[in-house]
Design a protein that fits this description.
86% helix; flat
């Protein structure tokens, strides 16, 4: 009987350890104590180029060509997003206006607070990048 209690106790301790570890990790991510590291643009470009070079066995000349193409694609992508950003903002503002139209005044205030929270989180993420 004592052996059975010992085995049960050990199993309970392991299960509780797993649960506490999962909960702790979830809280760390939720409150952003641990943030996934995002590579810098130059590091990202080097990583992409390395993957292509390895997978395709690129020659040095081909690597230079790929590097130029990757840079060109990145600058065009940034330019494109900068062009559409105002239109996206306009669409979002129109949507929020439509949402407010069907809400009660106290709900509209809550919606405004939610959006303030979203903007704050976005700015924090943007600073972290």
């Amino acid at each position: 009987m004592k052996r059975w209690k010992l085995v049960t106790g050990v199993i309970i301790v392991f299960v509780l350890g797993i649960l506490m570890g999962s909960l702790g990790t979830g809280l760390l991510y939720k409150y952003r104590v641990i943030r996934p590291v995002k590579p810098e643009p130059l590091e990202k470009r080097a990583l992409i180029l390395k993957r292509y070079s390895k997978a395709l066995a690129l020659s040095p000349e081909q690597s230079v060509g790929f590097e130029n193409i990757i840079d060109d694609m990145d600058s065009k992508r940034r330019e494109f997003f900068n062009k559409i950003r105002p239109e996206m903002r306009k669409i979002r503002e129109q949507g929020v206006s439509k949402m407010k139209a069907i809400l009660e005044p106290h709900q509209q205030e809550k919606l405004d607070k939610l959006h303030q929270t979203f903007r704050k989180r976005y700015k924090e993420r943007k600073e972290f990048r």
